[in-house]
Protein backbone atom coordinates (compact mmCIF):
# COMPACT_ATOMS: atom_id res chain seq x y z
CA UNK A 1 0.00 0.00 0.00
CA UNK A 2 1.37 3.43 -0.90
CA UNK A 3 2.03 6.11 1.70
CA UNK A 4 -1.38 7.71 1.23
CA UNK A 5 -3.09 4.37 1.86
CA UNK A 6 -4.57 4.25 -1.64
CA UNK A 7 -2.52 1.40 -3.06
CA UNK A 8 -3.97 -1.48 -5.03
CA UNK A 9 -6.00 -4.03 -3.12
CA UNK A 10 -3.24 -6.57 -2.50
CA UNK A 11 -0.44 -4.02 -2.76
CA UNK A 12 2.87 -4.94 -1.22
CA UNK A 13 1.76 -8.31 0.08
CA UNK A 14 3.40 -11.44 -1.27
CA UNK A 15 0.76 -13.57 -3.00
CA UNK A 16 -0.17 -16.93 -1.49
CA UNK A 17 -0.63 -18.03 2.08
CA UNK A 18 2.36 -17.42 4.30
CA UNK A 19 4.04 -20.26 6.26
CA UNK A 20 3.47 -18.23 9.40
CA UNK A 21 0.55 -20.53 10.34
CA UNK A 22 3.09 -23.24 11.24
CA UNK A 23 5.17 -20.95 13.47
CA UNK A 24 2.06 -19.49 15.03
CA UNK A 25 0.67 -22.96 15.83
CA UNK A 26 3.97 -23.97 17.50
CA UNK A 27 4.11 -20.60 19.28
CA UNK A 28 0.60 -21.03 20.54
CA UNK A 29 1.18 -24.62 21.72
CA UNK A 30 4.42 -23.48 23.36
CA UNK A 31 2.58 -20.67 25.13
CA UNK A 32 0.23 -23.16 26.74
CA UNK A 33 3.16 -25.39 27.75
CA UNK A 34 5.21 -22.51 29.12
CA UNK A 35 2.30 -21.09 31.09
CA UNK A 36 1.09 -24.43 32.42
CA UNK A 37 4.23 -26.45 33.14
CA UNK A 38 7.22 -24.15 33.47
CA UNK A 39 5.97 -22.38 36.64
CA UNK A 40 5.04 -25.78 38.10
CA UNK A 41 8.57 -27.07 37.38
CA UNK A 42 10.10 -24.01 38.99
CA UNK A 43 7.98 -24.46 42.12
CA UNK A 44 8.66 -28.20 42.33
CA UNK A 45 12.38 -28.25 41.57
CA UNK A 46 13.24 -24.84 42.99
CA UNK A 47 11.16 -24.74 46.16
CA UNK A 48 9.33 -27.94 47.10
CA UNK A 49 12.11 -30.49 46.54
CA UNK A 50 14.84 -28.72 48.50
CA UNK A 51 12.49 -27.61 51.31
CA UNK A 52 12.87 -28.77 54.90
CA UNK A 53 15.35 -31.28 56.39
CA UNK A 54 18.33 -31.65 53.98
CA UNK A 55 18.48 -35.43 54.35
CA UNK A 56 14.77 -35.84 53.53
CA UNK A 57 15.12 -33.34 50.71
CA UNK A 58 18.03 -35.29 49.22
CA UNK A 59 16.03 -38.51 49.28
CA UNK A 60 13.01 -36.77 47.76
CA UNK A 61 15.20 -35.29 45.03
CA UNK A 62 16.70 -38.72 44.28
CA UNK A 63 13.18 -40.18 43.89
CA UNK A 64 12.24 -37.31 41.59
CA UNK A 65 15.39 -37.79 39.52
CA UNK A 66 14.57 -41.49 39.17
CA UNK A 67 11.10 -40.61 37.88
CA UNK A 68 12.60 -38.19 35.37
CA UNK A 69 14.92 -40.99 34.25
CA UNK A 70 11.94 -42.96 32.96
CA UNK A 71 11.87 -42.48 29.18
CA UNK A 72 8.18 -41.48 28.74
CA UNK A 73 8.78 -38.67 31.25
CA UNK A 74 11.93 -37.67 29.39
CA UNK A 75 9.98 -37.53 26.14
CA UNK A 76 7.20 -35.42 27.68
CA UNK A 77 9.79 -33.07 29.21
CA UNK A 78 11.52 -32.71 25.87
CA UNK A 79 8.18 -31.84 24.26
CA UNK A 80 7.46 -29.17 26.85
CA UNK A 81 10.95 -27.71 26.56
CA UNK A 82 11.02 -27.74 22.74
CA UNK A 83 7.65 -25.99 22.42
CA UNK A 84 8.49 -23.46 25.14
CA UNK A 85 11.72 -22.65 23.31
CA UNK A 86 9.92 -22.15 19.97
CA UNK A 87 7.43 -19.92 21.81
CA UNK A 88 10.31 -17.87 23.12
CA UNK A 89 12.06 -17.69 19.72
CA UNK A 90 8.84 -16.61 17.98
CA UNK A 91 8.20 -13.87 20.51
CA UNK A 92 11.76 -12.59 20.18
CA UNK A 93 11.44 -12.62 16.37
CA UNK A 94 8.23 -10.61 16.50
CA UNK A 95 9.65 -8.17 19.03
CA UNK A 96 12.61 -7.58 16.71
CA UNK A 97 10.14 -7.01 13.87
CA UNK A 98 8.20 -4.51 15.98
CA UNK A 99 11.48 -2.77 16.76
CA UNK A 100 11.98 -2.07 13.06
CA UNK A 101 13.46 -5.29 11.63
CA UNK A 102 10.27 -6.24 9.79
CA UNK A 103 12.15 -6.35 6.49
CA UNK A 104 14.30 -9.16 7.83
CA UNK A 105 11.40 -11.27 9.12
CA UNK A 106 12.57 -14.22 6.99
CA UNK A 107 16.22 -13.90 8.01
CA UNK A 108 15.28 -13.61 11.70
CA UNK A 109 13.86 -17.13 11.54
CA UNK A 110 17.41 -18.50 11.43
CA UNK A 111 18.64 -17.30 14.85
CA UNK A 112 15.19 -17.44 16.51
CA UNK A 113 13.95 -20.89 15.50
CA UNK A 114 17.54 -22.11 15.04
CA UNK A 115 18.20 -21.12 18.64
CA UNK A 116 15.11 -23.01 19.74
CA UNK A 117 16.32 -26.06 17.81
CA UNK A 118 19.79 -25.82 19.34
CA UNK A 119 18.23 -25.52 22.81
CA UNK A 120 16.07 -28.56 22.10
CA UNK A 121 19.09 -30.61 21.00
CA UNK A 122 20.97 -29.55 24.11
CA UNK A 123 17.99 -30.49 26.30
CA UNK A 124 17.77 -33.86 24.54
CA UNK A 125 21.44 -34.49 25.23
CA UNK A 126 21.03 -33.60 28.90
CA UNK A 127 17.97 -35.81 29.20
CA UNK A 128 19.86 -38.63 27.47
CA UNK A 129 22.58 -38.70 30.09
CA UNK A 130 20.40 -38.53 33.22
CA UNK B 1 -26.02 27.40 34.13
CA UNK B 2 -23.40 29.48 35.89
CA UNK B 3 -22.02 32.07 33.47
CA UNK B 4 -18.47 31.12 34.43
CA UNK B 5 -19.10 27.46 33.84
CA UNK B 6 -17.03 26.81 30.78
CA UNK B 7 -14.53 24.29 29.53
CA UNK B 8 -11.61 24.63 27.17
CA UNK B 9 -11.33 22.44 24.12
CA UNK B 10 -7.97 22.42 22.40
CA UNK B 11 -8.63 21.40 18.85
CA UNK B 12 -6.24 20.19 16.18
CA UNK B 13 -6.47 22.46 13.15
CA UNK B 14 -4.97 21.87 9.73
CA UNK B 15 -6.08 23.20 6.38
CA UNK B 16 -3.48 21.83 3.96
CA UNK B 17 -4.21 24.47 1.31
CA UNK B 18 -3.25 27.37 3.62
CA UNK B 19 -1.42 25.92 6.65
CA UNK B 20 2.19 24.85 6.38
CA UNK B 21 1.76 22.70 9.48
CA UNK B 22 -0.93 21.69 11.99
CA UNK B 23 -1.59 23.71 15.14
CA UNK B 24 -3.80 23.48 18.22
CA UNK B 25 -6.45 26.12 18.78
CA UNK B 26 -8.12 26.58 22.17
CA UNK B 27 -11.87 27.27 22.31
CA UNK B 28 -13.93 28.18 25.34
CA UNK B 29 -17.26 26.33 25.32
CA UNK B 30 -20.19 26.47 27.75
CA UNK B 31 -20.10 23.54 30.14
CA UNK B 32 -23.28 21.51 30.07
CA UNK B 33 -23.55 18.25 31.96
CA UNK B 34 -25.58 16.61 29.23
CA UNK B 35 -23.19 17.53 26.47
CA UNK B 36 -20.86 15.15 24.73
CA UNK B 37 -17.60 16.27 23.10
CA UNK B 38 -19.37 16.28 19.72
CA UNK B 39 -21.94 18.79 21.04
CA UNK B 40 -19.12 21.11 22.07
CA UNK B 41 -17.45 20.79 18.65
CA UNK B 42 -20.76 21.48 16.90
CA UNK B 43 -21.28 24.50 19.17
CA UNK B 44 -17.87 25.85 18.14
CA UNK B 45 -18.66 25.32 14.47
CA UNK B 46 -22.08 27.03 14.81
CA UNK B 47 -21.06 29.94 17.08
CA UNK B 48 -17.34 30.57 16.84
CA UNK B 49 -15.60 29.17 13.80
CA UNK B 50 -17.51 27.82 10.81
CA UNK B 51 -14.31 26.64 9.14
CA UNK B 52 -13.77 23.88 11.70
CA UNK B 53 -14.14 20.60 9.82
CA UNK B 54 -15.29 17.32 11.36
CA UNK B 55 -17.46 14.31 10.55
CA UNK B 56 -20.59 13.21 12.34
CA UNK B 57 -24.08 12.07 11.60
CA UNK B 58 -26.20 9.98 13.95
CA UNK B 59 -25.20 11.43 17.32
CA UNK B 60 -26.03 8.07 18.90
CA UNK B 61 -23.11 5.71 18.40
CA UNK B 62 -24.51 4.05 15.31
CA UNK B 63 -22.98 5.64 12.21
CA UNK B 64 -19.34 5.40 13.28
CA UNK B 65 -18.30 8.70 11.71
CA UNK B 66 -17.41 10.83 14.77
CA UNK B 67 -14.29 8.98 15.94
CA UNK B 68 -11.48 11.26 17.16
CA UNK B 69 -8.66 11.22 19.67
CA UNK B 70 -9.98 12.68 22.93
CA UNK B 71 -7.11 13.37 25.33
CA UNK B 72 -5.07 10.86 23.39
CA UNK B 73 -7.64 8.06 23.39
CA UNK B 74 -9.67 6.96 20.39
CA UNK B 75 -13.33 7.73 21.19
CA UNK B 76 -16.69 8.20 19.55
CA UNK B 77 -17.12 11.89 20.36
CA UNK B 78 -20.90 11.45 20.49
CA UNK B 79 -20.44 9.03 23.38
CA UNK B 80 -17.72 10.92 25.31
CA UNK B 81 -19.38 13.14 27.93
CA UNK B 82 -17.90 16.49 28.93
CA UNK B 83 -18.69 15.70 32.57
CA UNK B 84 -16.17 12.87 32.51
CA UNK B 85 -13.40 15.41 31.78
CA UNK B 86 -14.72 18.47 33.67
CA UNK B 87 -13.17 20.70 35.01
CA UNK B 88 -10.01 19.83 33.09
CA UNK B 89 -9.47 20.73 29.46
CA UNK B 90 -10.01 18.39 26.55
CA UNK B 91 -7.65 17.93 23.65
CA UNK B 92 -9.28 16.78 20.42
CA UNK B 93 -7.24 15.38 17.54
CA UNK B 94 -7.99 13.39 14.39
CA UNK B 95 -7.63 9.61 14.68
CA UNK B 96 -3.96 8.64 14.68
CA UNK B 97 -2.53 6.16 12.15
CA UNK B 98 -4.46 7.92 9.36
CA UNK B 99 -3.46 10.76 7.08
CA UNK B 100 -5.25 14.02 7.93
CA UNK B 101 -7.41 15.46 5.22
CA UNK B 102 -8.51 18.64 7.03
CA UNK B 103 -8.79 19.44 10.78
CA UNK B 104 -10.44 16.43 12.40
CA UNK B 105 -11.20 14.57 9.18
CA UNK B 106 -8.94 11.68 8.16
CA UNK B 107 -8.42 9.86 4.87
CA UNK B 108 -10.47 6.64 4.99
CA UNK B 109 -9.53 5.28 1.56
CA UNK B 110 -6.94 2.78 2.78
CA UNK B 111 -9.40 1.49 5.38
CA UNK B 112 -12.17 1.10 2.80
CA UNK B 113 -9.80 -0.83 0.51
CA UNK B 114 -8.93 -3.19 3.34
CA UNK B 115 -12.58 -3.81 4.15
CA UNK B 116 -13.23 -4.75 0.53
CA UNK B 117 -10.17 -6.98 0.35
CA UNK B 118 -11.66 -9.53 2.77
CA UNK B 119 -14.69 -10.01 0.46
CA UNK B 120 -17.26 -9.01 3.08
CA UNK B 121 -20.30 -10.69 1.53
CA UNK B 122 -21.71 -14.19 1.32
CA UNK B 123 -20.00 -16.27 -1.34
CA UNK B 124 -21.81 -19.35 -2.66
CA UNK B 125 -20.63 -22.10 -5.02
CA UNK B 126 -24.18 -23.30 -5.49
CA UNK B 127 -26.69 -20.48 -5.57
CA UNK B 128 -30.20 -21.61 -4.67
CA UNK B 129 -33.09 -20.46 -6.81
CA UNK B 130 -35.14 -17.81 -5.03
CA UNK B 131 -38.15 -20.14 -5.22
CA UNK B 132 -36.34 -22.36 -2.71
CA UNK B 133 -36.54 -19.56 -0.18
CA UNK B 134 -33.84 -18.13 2.04
CA UNK B 135 -30.80 -19.97 3.39
CA UNK B 136 -31.92 -20.98 6.84
CA UNK B 137 -29.81 -20.57 9.90
CA UNK B 138 -30.29 -21.70 13.49
CA UNK B 139 -29.87 -19.31 16.44
CA UNK B 140 -26.72 -21.26 17.38
CA UNK B 141 -25.29 -20.71 13.88
CA UNK B 142 -26.15 -17.01 14.12
CA UNK B 143 -24.40 -16.80 17.49
CA UNK B 144 -21.17 -17.99 15.82
CA UNK B 145 -20.64 -14.64 14.09
CA UNK B 146 -23.24 -12.17 15.38
CA UNK B 147 -20.82 -10.31 17.65
CA UNK B 148 -18.42 -9.76 14.72
CA UNK B 149 -21.22 -8.29 12.62
CA UNK B 150 -21.82 -5.38 15.01
CA UNK B 151 -18.95 -3.26 13.67
CA UNK B 152 -19.85 0.32 12.69
CA UNK B 153 -16.54 1.01 10.87
CA UNK B 154 -15.60 3.77 13.27
CA UNK B 155 -11.87 2.97 12.86
CA UNK B 156 -11.15 3.49 16.58
CA UNK B 157 -9.45 0.09 16.58
CA UNK B 158 -7.03 1.22 13.84
CA UNK B 159 -6.14 4.29 15.88
CA UNK B 160 -5.52 2.09 18.94
CA UNK B 161 -3.42 -0.55 17.17
CA UNK B 162 0.37 -0.03 17.06
CA UNK B 163 0.73 -2.57 14.22
CA UNK B 164 -1.87 -0.77 12.05
CA UNK B 165 0.32 2.30 12.52
CA UNK B 166 3.51 0.85 11.08
CA UNK B 167 2.61 -2.11 8.88
CA UNK B 168 0.78 -1.28 5.65
CA UNK B 169 0.32 -4.95 4.72
CA UNK B 170 -1.68 -5.56 7.90
CA UNK B 171 -5.42 -5.65 7.18
CA UNK B 172 -6.21 -4.32 10.65
CA UNK B 173 -8.71 -5.27 13.36
CA UNK B 174 -12.07 -4.31 11.81
CA UNK B 175 -11.31 -5.80 8.37
CA UNK B 176 -10.04 -9.06 9.87
CA UNK B 177 -13.05 -9.31 12.20
CA UNK B 178 -15.30 -8.71 9.20
CA UNK B 179 -13.57 -11.42 7.15
CA UNK B 180 -13.87 -13.80 10.08
CA UNK B 181 -17.55 -12.88 10.45
CA UNK B 182 -18.22 -14.25 6.94
CA UNK B 183 -15.94 -17.26 7.43
CA UNK B 184 -18.05 -18.20 10.45
CA UNK B 185 -21.38 -17.72 8.65
CA UNK B 186 -23.02 -21.09 7.97
CA UNK B 187 -24.50 -19.77 4.71
CA UNK B 188 -21.11 -18.84 3.31
CA UNK B 189 -18.84 -21.01 1.15
CA UNK B 190 -16.06 -18.53 0.51
CA UNK B 191 -13.73 -19.36 3.36
CA UNK B 192 -10.87 -20.66 1.21
CA UNK B 193 -10.98 -17.58 -1.04
CA UNK B 194 -11.08 -15.25 1.91
CA UNK B 195 -8.27 -17.05 3.75
CA UNK B 196 -6.06 -16.66 0.65
CA UNK B 197 -6.26 -12.91 1.27
CA UNK B 198 -6.20 -12.99 5.06
CA UNK B 199 -3.21 -15.34 5.33
CA UNK B 200 -0.94 -13.67 2.75
CA UNK B 201 2.13 -11.79 3.96
CA UNK B 202 1.47 -9.73 7.07
CA UNK B 203 -2.28 -9.39 6.36
CA UNK B 204 -3.19 -11.18 9.60
CA UNK B 205 0.20 -12.30 10.93
CA UNK B 206 1.24 -8.72 11.56
CA UNK B 207 -0.97 -8.91 14.65
CA UNK B 208 1.08 -9.51 17.79
CA UNK B 209 -1.98 -9.65 20.06
CA UNK B 210 -1.65 -6.27 21.69
CA UNK B 211 -5.42 -6.35 22.28
CA UNK B 212 -6.04 -2.58 22.36
CA UNK B 213 -8.55 -2.90 19.49
CA UNK B 214 -10.89 -4.82 21.74
CA UNK B 215 -10.38 -2.36 24.59
CA UNK B 216 -11.44 0.69 22.54
CA UNK B 217 -14.21 -0.88 20.44
CA UNK B 218 -17.49 0.90 21.29
CA UNK B 219 -19.57 -2.00 19.92
CA UNK B 220 -17.87 -4.86 21.82
CA UNK B 221 -16.95 -6.52 18.55
CA UNK B 222 -13.79 -8.01 20.14
CA UNK B 223 -11.66 -7.87 16.97
CA UNK B 224 -8.67 -9.26 18.91
CA UNK B 225 -10.70 -12.40 19.68
CA UNK B 226 -11.78 -12.69 16.05
CA UNK B 227 -8.16 -12.44 14.92
CA UNK B 228 -7.08 -15.16 17.39
CA UNK B 229 -9.87 -17.44 16.15
CA UNK B 230 -8.95 -16.73 12.54
CA UNK B 231 -5.30 -17.58 13.26
CA UNK B 232 -6.36 -20.85 14.85
CA UNK B 233 -8.49 -21.55 11.77
CA UNK B 234 -5.44 -20.82 9.60
CA UNK B 235 -3.28 -23.23 11.60
CA UNK B 236 -5.92 -25.96 11.22
CA UNK B 237 -6.07 -25.35 7.47
CA UNK B 238 -2.28 -25.42 7.29
CA UNK B 239 -2.06 -28.88 8.86
CA UNK B 240 -5.08 -30.12 6.92
CA UNK B 241 -3.14 -29.14 3.80
CA UNK B 242 -0.63 -31.92 4.57
CA UNK B 243 -3.27 -34.55 5.17
CA UNK B 244 -5.52 -33.57 2.28
CA UNK B 245 -3.62 -31.55 -0.35
CA UNK B 246 -5.67 -29.07 -2.39
CA UNK B 247 -7.76 -30.58 -5.17
CA UNK B 248 -8.57 -33.80 -3.32
CA UNK B 249 -11.92 -32.47 -2.24
CA UNK B 250 -10.67 -30.83 0.95
S1 LIG C 1 -14.26 -3.29 15.31
FE1 LIG C 1 -15.12 -1.86 16.84
S2 LIG C 1 -13.54 -0.20 16.97
FE2 LIG C 1 -13.12 -1.35 15.09
S3 LIG C 1 -14.20 -0.21 13.46
FE3 LIG C 1 -15.61 -1.85 14.19
S4 LIG C 1 -16.85 -0.89 15.81
FE4 LIG C 1 -15.09 0.46 15.46
S1 LIG D 1 -22.15 10.58 15.35
FE1 LIG D 1 -22.69 8.58 14.69
S2 LIG D 1 -21.41 7.34 15.94
FE2 LIG D 1 -21.05 9.33 16.70
Report what the structure shows.
Chain A is mainly alpha-helical. Chain A has helices at 20-36, 38-48, 54-68, 71-101, 109-129. In chain A, helix 1 (20-36) crosses helix 4 (71-101) and helix 4 (71-101) packs antiparallel against helix 5. Chain A is elongated. Chain B is an alpha+beta fold and 250 residues long. Chain B folds into 2 domains: 6-106, Ubiquitin-like (UB roll) (Roll), CATH 3.10.20.30; 109-243, Fumarate Reductase Iron-sulfur Protein, Chain B, domain 2 (Orthogonal Bundle), CATH 1.10.1060. Chain B has helices at residues 37-47, 109-117, 139-143, 156-160, 162-166, 173-183, 191-198, 212-216, 223-243; strands spanning 6-13, 23-30, 67-70, 73-76, 90-93, 100-102, 105-106. At the A-B interface, helix 1 of A face helix 2, helix 5, helix 7 and helix 9 of B. The complex binds iron/sulfur cluster and FE2/S2 (inorganic) cluster. The site of FE2/S2 (inorganic) cluster has 12 residues of chain B, from loops.
**Topology pattern of chain B, helix = H, strand = E:** EEHEEEEEHHHHHHHH
Overall SS class of chain B? alpha+beta
Helices and strands of chain A, in order, run as HHHHH
The CATH class of the largest domain in chain B is identified as Mainly Alpha
What's the helical proportion of residues of chain B? 25-40%
Query: What is the total number of structural domains of chain B?
Result: 2
What is the CATH topology assignment of the largest domain in chain B?
Answer: Fumarate Reductase Iron-sulfur Protein, Chain B, domain 2
> What global shape of chain A is seen?
elongated
Question: Main beta sheet of chain A, described?
Answer: none
As for the number of domains of chain A, it is 1
The value of Rg of chain A in angstroms is 21 Å
Largest interface: A-B, 25 and 32 residues
As a percent range, the share of strand residues of chain A is under 5%
The CATH architecture classification of the largest domain in chain B is Orthogonal Bundle
